[in-house]
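Batch manifest, entry 17 of 40.
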Amino acid sequence: MRVLVTGGAGFIGSALVDQLVKRGDQVLVIDNFSTGSEKNLEDARNATAEDLIVENCDIRDSETTKLISDYQPSIIFHLAAQVDVRASVEDPLTDLETNLVGLIRVLEGGRKAKTRKVIFASSGGTIYGEPETKELPLNEDTPWNPLSPYGVSKLAGGLYVNTYDSIHGLKGTTLALANVYGPRQDPHGEAGVVAIFAGKLLNGEPCTVYGTGMQTRDFVYVEDVASAFVASIENGDGKLLNIGTGTETSIQHLYKEMALALGIDSKAEEGEERPGEIERSSLNPLLAEKILGWKPETSLKDGIHSTLEWFKLKRQENP
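Output type: structure tokens
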């Protein structure tokens, strides 16, 4: 099958490319390498160099539509995005251009190529806002209430996907992702807390836990997330599906688990509570299990171990 992955050189995108290549799919990656890396695609290249094409292109450019139209993929996985919530507050115009104008470029390419389906990466941590904690883990019928420009753009993106189905017959599935972590996540810039802690712990630097440290997140392993995208190829048309574990983990507990795994007994430093931070979050994955036949397979303990091993190896390669 001929498929396209935008943002395919990134953290989640490259994990998806690995799985697609193993399936025997022909893969076109579109990435501007602002956060992604050619190194993330080494495994896929080694597995099948002839079936992997990489184009350095910004999804905001009109060239994106032409690339997709010419390639004529059966399936488009759209993961390229501006994903930093705080950056979206500081610069909402760039967030809009990347996450919505870029999406339209991709959808137009799919329409012209007569692509069968677009699978869109949304954000379960932002489109729902902060509902009552009694509602956790959140179901897909939770009212939308994004509290940042990023959350708004991801919510609107899913609506655009649905609209292209209604108008043009371009099928779509929207996956609302929880807090994804795992190998290849960059500990700098817009990284998640697992990557940040991993980088600092291995460098012997103190980690900072903001506020009480009892705020919770739903940590889902990157390989499991990639599997959810693959499972959406044949299922989930027209659906919004939560991709998480349904389990809350406090930041304080996460730090202790990661420090324990490395034999470190020092406590994290305390930082001031960051304004606007969601207190608790988790996503109910049962609908995804019912419709996609998907469920998270990797425990937090095993995922942390694999992530730390990858960071150790990276440090050995780049001392």
